[in-house]
Amino acid sequence: MRLLQDTGIAVNPFRGEGDAFWGNTPPFAPTGFPAGVLYQRHDGEAGHTLGAAEANAEIRATLRQRLAQTPASERPLVNKNPYNTVRVPWLRALFPQALIVAVTRAALPTAYSLTKKHLPHEGRGREPEEGWWGVKPRRWRELRDEDTLVQTARQWEAVTRQLLDARDELDRIVSYPQLCADPAAVLGDICRCATGREPPRPLELRPLRCFDDEHRRGSRLQSKNRYYHETGTLQIPSSEPIELPALDDARIDLVERLTAETERELREHVQLEVAER
After folding, report:
1. What is the Rg, in whole angstroms, of the alpha carbon atoms belonging to the chain?
2. Exposed/middle/buried for 168, CB within 10 Å: 0-12, 13-18, 19+?
3. Out of 10, 21, 143, 205, which could bridge 4 as a Cys pair, Cβ 3.0 to 4.6 Å?
4. 230 by DSSP, 3-state: which?
5. How far lies 27's CA from each of 19, 20, 71, 126, 217, in Å?
6. How does pLDDT run along the chain (277 residues), one tens digit per residue?
7. DSSP string, 158-200
């Protein structure tokens, strides 16, 4: 989202991730309309999952009205909201002409990174609620575990499985390493797909530092988002204080066993996506 904004390809007319627009307020267990009302209707058991059948006329009218009230722009509008990972059929039913791009990351670094949110630290933001932090797939309460690494691995597996089940509704799947390695190529493709034109100006973007190996090196606890807030760029220092230890081989093997099948299928889809383009 930040790359699309910073390069002038798209504009984000919403506050943050657009939670008020979608009704994801308050966070985690929302009550706002429409997403929160639907969340509460299922007593949270469906998590943040929404299907095409729940995109009724009232919801379509409300969201289109909210969209019409955003500042006018000749550029495409962009919204990035992690909850939408498990709402792709709902999104497609609401906005049939939207360009839906999924940005995916491998299981191990995702699970490791998510464990940080379960540890108190400065700048963490909201603490977990009902023992859970982040996107809730269906039956998320059954995935909870005293071992947060087991829980976050299960979370990645369930959320990614729901995304793959909705593969036919996606326009693009982009892997995090692919985006880091060649952001200009990824953004150029998104721009052409969204507008039918080349980017408004040449994209001179350096590769971004990929953190998919931090589970082997250890990491600071604060989110990498903090660097952007401090510097206004996506460039991250070459070294950081180690506050969360690296995973040993046994812990790495544990995550790999929990996520192997879905990980393999995700890689196949990403490779197919690249090959088709």
Report:
1. 19
2. exposed
3. 10
4. helix
5. 8, 10, 25, 9, 31
6. 999 999 999 999 999 899 999 999 999 999 999 999 999 999 999 999 999 999 999 999 999 999 999 998 999 999 999 999 999 999 999 999 999 999 999 999 999 999 999 999 988 889 999 999 999 999 999 999 999 999 999 999 999 999 999 999 999 999 999 999 999 999 999 999 999 999 988 888 999 999 999 999 999 998 888 777 777 777 777 788 899 999 999 999 999 999 999 999 999 988 777 666 6
7. HHHHHHHHTGGG-SEEEEHHHHHH-HHHHHHHHHHHHHSS--S
Q: What is the token pair recorded at 133?
A: 């932090």
Buried b (16+ CB within 10 A) or exposed e, 183-217: bbebbbebbeebbeeebeeebebeebebbbebbee
**Do 207 and 180 meet the contact criterion of CB atoms below 8 Å apart?**
yes
Q: Is the dihedral of CA 261, 266, 267, 268 positive or negative?
A: positive
| SS3 state at 129 | strand
Tokens of 183: 């952001």
Write phi, then psi, for 101 (nearest 5 degrees): -115, 125
